[in-house]
Design brief:
There is one protein chain. This protein is an alpha+beta fold. The chain has 3 domains: 2-137, Immunoglobulins (Immunoglobulin-like, Sandwich), CATH 2.60.40; 142-239, Immunoglobulins (Immunoglobulin-like, Sandwich), CATH 2.60.40; 240-279, no CATH class. It is built from 3 helices and 19 strands. It has helices spanning 2-22, 241-249, 260-277, and strands at 25-29, 33-35, 39-46, 51-56, 60-61, 67-68, 74-78, 85-87, 96-101, 109-118, 128-137, 142-147, 150-154, 159-167, 175-180, 189-191, 197-205, 211-221, 228-238. Strands 2-1-4-9-8 form a 5-stranded antiparallel β-sheet, with no helix packed on it. α2 (241-249) packs across α3. The longest helix is centred in the N-terminal third of the chain and has 21 residues, at 2-22. The chain is elongated and about 80 Å long.
Amino acid sequence: MLKNILLPFAFISLIALSANAATYLQVQGPVNGTLHNRGTIFLGKLGPGQSFYIQASPSTDNASGSFVNVGWDQLTAVNLPQGWSSQASPLYENPMKLKITASPYAQYGTYNLTIVAINQGNYSHLGNLTIYAYVNVTPDVFNLSVSPSTVNMGVSQPTNLDVQINNTGISDDPFVLNVTGLPAWNFSDVVIASHDSVSSFVYPISVGEPGVYHLNFTATSAPSPLITRSIPITVYAQASLLNDYYATGQGVVISPVIVEPAYSLMLFLSDIYRLFTNN
């Protein structure tokens, strides 16, 4: 009698286990992974206050192992840490993109995020699938390099700094670039450095008076002032006939057409001098 009662329960449990083993969530970003129900995945590093996207495919297998092209209809986050927020993917988006934003006051450490893939109305008889994602909250989410570190330039002649941001985190939030230490210079530039990549930018500087200037070049995550890097730059600005020739040849001075050949000669002479002196 007991055996006859237990057999149906065993059969039902076997079906449930088969369904869990068959259905999966294919995570496509910020890292890749195929996860079954209650699977875990480490996504990477995130700064306090930063946002990132979990991207996943709507395709999966059903309980019988048959492929379902659009099985998951929405990706959501539940039971987030205090102060965190999320935006569920729009219904039927392909691929699904769930946005998560860390609290700007998040303490450094590892956090668990519960992610749920939903089969809307259980139309494909998949139920819901839950996975556990982990992120490491840290300010160490990017590296900064700027060249040259020593700049020789003429007065009122803009010079470009070459900037590289190596974004080792999982957020694509923008960075703000600026410098301090230049009189009357208050130029900020907002740039996007995609996660897990190295991005290059050009930042212009200019000075109006001769002198030696000690600059501080800074890149800061737009949503979080805690995520910042600074590099010292030394600028030697001087007025000289060579610099004046070079500026004139570049068209700084606007004059009648009759003197343009002279300006061309000035530019040619300054270029020849720079070529042989590496200035």
